[in-house]
Amino acid sequence: MAAGVIALMFGFRQIYSWICLILCVFVASTVGLEFYRGAKVIRARSGASFVTSAVELTMRNTRRYGGYIVHMGMVFVFIGLAGAAFNHDIQKDMRQGDSLQIGPYTLVLQGFDTKPEKNYTAQRLLVEVLRDKKPIMMLYPEKRRFSTTEENGTMVAIYSTLKEDLYVVYAGNSPDTQLPVLHAYLNPLVKWIWFGGVVVVFGTLVALLPNRRAVLVLAGAQQLAVAAQPMAHGLAPSATMREGHD
Question: What is the DSSP secondary-structure string of 154-212?
Fold first, then answer.
């Protein structure tokens, strides 16, 4: 049920996205439970914080728990891939003041200018981004003409969030209307793929580390050791006296 609610939050409507997300939640829950159980035992014995206990647990069996971290990274990657099924784009010939709607965003062309630089001249669009009729930021997609090579380049303007990435491209001028063409792409959950890749690499490095031997001194064991010292010192004279009597 919780996975379904999350799916609706991210706009997942198709069955394969539901299945993918539910499987990801299942794997993440299983891995999280493994860490929780092990860290809970160590915490009960050592009195350390939960985070410290989780690190200690991981370092005791790096291959096993490093593998779990890799699994978590793959969960993030598959969530991102599920979102990629909903990529969409739209383009439009734009006059100043015209708007283009893509997903929850409204792109308004506020102007057009030319910006000379040392090695190139940039022609750029001044695009205001609104969400729910509220301004968010300005984006400046460009086309560059390099003076040394006589080549053209396109610079994409990006607005990125954890949920989705918005790419805005100045696609040149329309041959029919001679108006600038604005091409917008909306790609959900792109950051999850990148984050998942980082987690996979981190988990792999952890799995390659040698295991650390468990060095846990229990509070009760410390007290027993302290109590045993006077007893040991007290028994030594008695033994000496017995030997002398014999």
Answer: EE-EEEE-SSEEEEEEEEEE-TTT-PEEEEEEEEETHHHHHHHHHHHHHHHHHHHSPPP
- For 22-39, the pLDDT digits (tens) are 899 999 999 999 999 999
Task: For 170-203, write each residue's pLDDT tens digit.
Answer: 998 888 888 999 999 999 999 999 999 999 999 9
Radius of gyration of the chain, Cα coordinates, nearest whole angstrom: 31
Residue type, 134: K
Question: What is the rounded CA–CA span in Å between residue 36 and residue 42?
Answer: 10
What is the C-alpha separation between 123 and 200, in angstroms, rounded?
A: 40
* Contacts of the segment 146-153: beta carbons below 8 A, 24+ positions apart: 146/119, 146/120, 147/119, 147/120, 147/121, 148/119, 153/120
Q: Domain map of the chain by residue range?
A: 2-84+193-245, 88-191
Query: By C-alpha distance, which of 151, 154, 127, 129 is closest to 143?
Result: 154
Cross-strand pairs, 137: 129
Cα separation, 126 vs 142, whole angstroms: 9
> Can you tell me the distance from the alpha carbon of 43 to that of 49, in angstroms, rounded to the nearest whole number?
7
From residue 34, alpha-carbon distances to 11, 30, 194 in Å are: 30, 6, 25
Put simply, whether the predicted model's pTM sits higher than 0.85 gets the answer no
As given in the structure block, the two tokens for residue 26 are 């299942």
As beta bridge partners, residue 90 has 184
CB 130 within 8 A of CB 105: yes
- The answer to whether residues 111 and 96 touch, using CB atoms and an 8 Å cutoff, is yes
